[in-house]
Amino acid sequence: MGLFSSCFGDIDDDHHYGYLKRSQQGGRRSVTKAMIGKPENFVHTGHLGIGTVRGNNSSLNTDPEKLKTLMSQVSAAIDEDTLFGVPDELYRHFLPATKPYIAFVLAMSVQEPPSPSQCASIASSTPPRTQFPTHGLLPRIDTQASEFVRKNPSYDGRGTVVAVLDTGIDPGAQGLQITSDGKRKVLDFVDCTGSGDVVMGDPQQCISDALELRGASGRMLRLNPTWTNPSGEWRVGAKRLYDVAPQSVKAVSKRDREEKFRKTAQTLSDSVNTQLTAAKISKKDNTADTPTRKKDGTVDASATGKDDTVAELEAQAGVLSTLSGSYEDQGPMLDCVVFYDGTQWRAAIDAEADGDLSNAKALGAYKTTGDVALLSKRQLLYFTLNFYDNGRTLSIVTSAGPHSTHVAGILAANHPEEPQNNGVAPGAQLISLLIGDHRVASLETGVGLTRAVGAIIEHGADLANMSFGEPSATHNAGQWVQMVRKEVVRRHRCIFVSSAGNEGPALTTVGAPGGTTDGIIGVGAFVGEEQIKADHAMYDTVRDTAFTWCSRGPTFDGARGSDIFAPGSAIASYPAYTQQRLRLGNGTSMSSPNLCGCLALLVSAWKQEFGASGDSSDQPQKRISPYRVKNAIFATARAFGDELGAGLMQTDAAWQFLKKHSQREFEDVEYSISIPELNGARGIYLRNPEDSAQARHLKITVAPVFPEDADAKLERDPGGQHGQEDSQRRFDFEQRVLLVSDASWVRVPEALYVGSEGQIFNTQVDATQLEPGRLHIAAIEGYDSANVDRGPIFTVPITVTKPLEVGAGACVRLDSLRFQPTDIVRRFIAVPAGATRARITFHSGNTSVQASAPAVFYLHCLQISPQERFKTYELKQRVTAGHPSFIAGGKCAEQRYQCAMDVLGGATLEVCVAQFWNQLGNHEVDLTIDFNGISPVGAQYARAEGDRVNAGIVVNGNYGVVRTDFCANVRPEYNIKPKATLDVLRMTLRPQSAAVSPCDSERDIHPASGVAIHKLLLDYKLETKSDGVTIRPRLPALDTKIYESWADDFALAIFDVNKRRVASQISYTSNVTLRKRGSYLVRVQIRHRSEKDLESLKNIPLLIDMQLTNKVNLPTFFTLASAFTDTVLGSKPTVNTIAHGSSMPLFFKTDLTGLPAEASPGDVLYGSLTLSKLNADMSIEYIVPTKCNGGDKSKSPSSSANVSADVPADGKTLSPAEKERKEIEEAIRKLRIGWIKIAKDDSVREQLISELLAAEKSGDAAKEDKGDVQAAVLSAQLDTLDSMRKSQLPWSDAAKLTAESARRSVEVADRIVSLTYPQALTVRLYENQATLTNDEDKKQKQLAETAKDRLVCALTTKCRALAFLTTQAMPSSRSSETSVEFIDVISPCEDADNRLPVYEKAVSDLTKWTSEKQQADDAVFLMATLPLHIAKQNYGRALQCVMKWIGKAPLLESNTAERKAMTELRDLLVAKLGWSMWTDHFRETALVEHPATYEPL
């Protein structure tokens, strides 16, 4: 009979469905379906078309004798090994009862498939299965975890503590409340990042006898009288909800709050528009509306038929529209109160943001109290608290995202009512360590990682899971991974598990730390039958495999990468704030906690069987060592087809291994591999062409690594007992090793003696005869000669990717690549030297008789460059074969897809094509790879994209013309059309301040040294010249480095002049858009344990890459002459082709126009050079030249002082003595006038003014000169009367105006006007004149301009004084202690009617002497004139002017006072209009936009 590929189903209550398999390769399961039904259904369900049966093509077997014979043949082929996935106790019942049924079905199935109509008829009459495959929701069968717990119910993780380094577990998630034995599931929630920190203020007492405090938000807080606070001291602080809310909560909250706010805003706007319509109708009925226009064509509202009511309402409507358009919800500010209750710190948070804490519960630290509360009731956002630094720091701990909760659910969820949803180790307890910072979109930070290590040690965790990671440029290196390896794993015996990454399927795509680091178990993602059934809803199945996207090894230095595999999908717990109990997740983030859960089962079993109780009192050295556990799981993992040899976790088998070898002390050892000729590599990885060109002779060092006793440190071990035990362990160690190679092209010695210091052996790897273009895997295995059956004690992985050579045509064809589901085809190509670009053409054809369904393919091409992340040269595309041109019914269909990538000449390119794991059907694919390459001669080629800061082509703007030659490296290059575009301005900033100090938080003690970590704070000043500038800050010494970084942490924040944080960055810096032009502070923090190392960085430069709105084109020419003219021979371009191996010059003309305003000499414009469509763009730098010499600008037009000194009024030339005397007199006069402003005694000032005025009256100077001096004296006096006119509103206390000083100001201003008005008028005579050449004309123009300036200043002060006299400030209803002051009411004075016309006339006069731009942009003008609108109750018109000014004003330190005054004026006008919703909004935003201090990094 024919062979069946395999059949399976579910087990129902009557046991009529069974699991079948056909063992093909060592018991590996294949996964196609066939249903086995009840006897009465056999005739109808003998063949359902669900599975695949290969056999003869006979018709339906209806002959009883033939059927009986066939059944006996099938029955003989069935044995116990054919059944799988069935509990052990069912075997003895299941097989005898169902064997005849199985034989009958298979016998009936050996026939032609039924027609589609027959299948439809059968399917329609077949009821659905009665059970959901719940065992696959969270897969445990394939890893033997479910079977292990079934056999050993108490070994379900009890007694183990697992740290989860992630985005923070949600305290409200289902399944994460209690363990299987009734203990608290999560022992502690810790925010390691500091993003939830609240800096608390100094201790304070309640106001009087009432339990009330002024909160940090400005709200009055009513406290709970039941709280116990013996000292009576309270600390207050505040935190914005959105700063601690996960993104989903923030998005929903913003949406809801904005919707509510806009409804109210629309009601207000509708009300104003209704009034406006009524006013227009009323006015139209009474007067004609004939507008009068100004000279510039705009309508003069005062001269039209409209009255002030219509204009006012139009202004109000316009303001409301502006406000609505600029509305941005900042979220509620939550007040926090911290106090000490006599035994511990407690805190209450005003989650409702209403100031009422009278019934609030004061929470303690979760670790000791278990207190949990809701931060947002609507969103079910739970939080816990921690306290640090003696109550000075409150830590609000929330989840930064759902990832961690899902991970924790896979690892250890316990659902007492729904055990099918349990995690792998429901008895384990967890520690939630938040390493995903809220401020940087839940990315991990160095601070978070280092503090997490301290928390693992502090809590005595048995295991740690980290489903986080990033690509790294250097594997197995960096201060943090070294700290984990030495402190966490080796000294404190914590088993550290981490995900390998989701960046596959190409080789060498594992991420740090999981796939790259010794000591950390890196986990790949496996998909098997139970996941396919429950999680992925496939109508057919595929063989066990790794998920296509799973990252693959080896590492850069040849280590395996993914050490072991576990199921990479699960439906598990999800945070309450997502409103989902369970959710499906896929990734190595899921496989890592699945494996960690399996290890928790083993640790739990070890503790219970071998005497360690596992509580916190256990000494670390009593625990099972991570090395013993790793040895067990690696030795027993089940092979399933991973190319590099990693297997699938087998829990029960690992436990049997542990028990069998429990007395073997050397199982507590792992072996480090180092190959000096390969720079200390941990394996042999021959990737590039030269690596396999000849046989390699290598020395390999094998050295044992022992666990250490954390108490063996000298300061902890005065008696030396712990140190003696460690030394004795090393002394006793010896291993007699037998070496074996599994490949004929690898030669090794037969035996090796290894002592505690390790040993070296020689090996030969000869890849010269291996097939080019293919992947070749081998290994050197070392066996304990006394226990060979145990399996290898160490392995040296060998990976060879011998590349195909590229021919003269620079093209490689890969034809007829055939695929079945889950297939991956890899080919390796030696990229020609000098190539910079590769074009890959993907061709899919289908000419089979029965066409396959469309399938998704991954096209993944990758090169490795030393000390660069694998993403530097990578192409990853999803391609659908058979779509959209797929034609059913056997007709021909084909598809072409073309893409390109930058390549590195001389390095091997992997071209990996993978049929996505869940895509069914067979396909055939052809690939063509074409290479091109043009590079500058004598300069390093550099790609236009990437993280490097250096460019391949540098053009110095000071040279006029720069020549660069370009060579065609791999083939002739045609259609050369050069274009150089500069789109980034790169500025270099040096720190304005730098300070090194120890971190002052108790959390920042280095786990290894036990001393405080030091931090370097660097402040850089950045100025932008326009709104909406996009920048990227970069620190090359720390860019794109986390796990491999030499520093503990790198953090960067950008603050505006209001001290508001506008951006936070980590080492993976990104673009930031600065919405308003102005001054910004870029603060950088670098942390390291060495103070000395930080001191050397105090002058480190910061690069600012500013995106240019208007790109700059750098003129490029083929000939030198064409850069200047096209009228002479040879000036026109003659070459647009470069022959292979030849070069071609290009000339860059460097005299550019249109450079950005921010560019200074020495700055760099950065961009790309494109030569042709087929070649990679090259990076190019343009150095901004020194400024052009525009003549001697130091000689300004002669001043009036110089002219008057040389040429007196009577026209006679002065003698040198007379000239000197007049200069002395002028200097003395200026000095005395200057003292008017700085004299502190009023009587002295008045006497000085009188003397100066009297001296001028009696002097012999010309009349106009006397008037000029008198105006100068009076202007100085006016400045003293209203010294704050540039920064304060007239009625504010800070302006220091009084009724007396205001009246005096009006008098003095009038005198100045009378003195300056005639001369100021002459300014208009010079407005339209060309450049003046006559010295007398220059003098008169300057005198006129000075007079005008004094006139405008005098009128401005007069308006301010009249504004003060016309209006009066009423007492504020809010205490001056509030963080933001609001003036509630400005009311007219009693005699305002008398003063108003005078004020109105002054404003009219001032307006005549100022331009429209000045009237809109000058805050001093607005503060002087807008009170007229207030006095006339035209609040909307005044507010319209204020809003325009605020919208345009830059964020500068120089205009801080003006911005504050205009903001106060805005708040005053909004209050006067009765727009309470906007008053409340501005009060809330003020707390965010104007913080008192800079936020800590």
Give an overview of the whole structure.
This protein is α+β, with helices and mostly antiparallel strands and 1497 residues long. Helix content is 29%, strand content 23%. It is built from 30 helices and 57 strands. The strands form 14 sheets. Strands 1, 2, 13, 16, 17, 18, 19 and 20 form an eight-stranded mixed sheet that branches. Helix 14 packs across helix 15 (651-660). The protein starts with 41 loop residues before the first helix and ends in an 8-residue tail after the last helix.
Give a topology summary.
Layout: H1 42-45, H2 64-77, H3 88-109, H4 116-125, H5 145-151, E1 161-166, E2 186-191, E3 197-199, E4 212-214, E5 220-222, E6 235-240, H6 247-286, H7 308-326, E7 333-340, E8 345-349, E9 363-364, H8 366-369, E10 373-376, E11 381-388, E12 393-397, H9 403-412, E13 429-434, E14 436-437, E15 443-444, H10 446-459, E16 463-466, H11 479-491, E17 495-499, E18 520-527, H12 529-535, E19 545-546, E20 564-567, E21 569-573, E22 582-586, H13 588-610, H14 626-636, H15 651-660, E23 670-674, E24 684-686, E25 696-705, H16 721-732, E26 734-741, E27 746-747, E28 751-755, E29 759-765, E30 775-784, E31 792-801, E32 811-819, E33 824-830, E34 837-846, E35 855-863, E36 873-881, E37 893-902, E38 908-915, E39 923-932, E40 934-936, E41 953-956, E42 961-968, E43 979-989, E44 993-998, E45 1014-1024, E46 1029-1034, E47 1049-1056, E48 1061-1065, E49 1072-1074, E50 1078-1088, H17 1091-1095, E51 1102-1114, E52 1116-1117, E53 1143-1149, E54 1164-1170, E55 1178-1183, H18 1200-1206, H19 1216-1238, H20 1242-1258, H21 1263-1281, H22 1299-1321, H23 1323-1326, H24 1335-1366, E56 1367-1369, ...
Helix pairs in contact: 2-3, 6-7, 7-28, 9-13, 10-11, 13-15, 14-15, 19-20, 19-21, 20-21, 21-22, 21-24, 22-24, 24-25, 24-27, 25-27, 27-28, 27-29, 28-29, 29-30
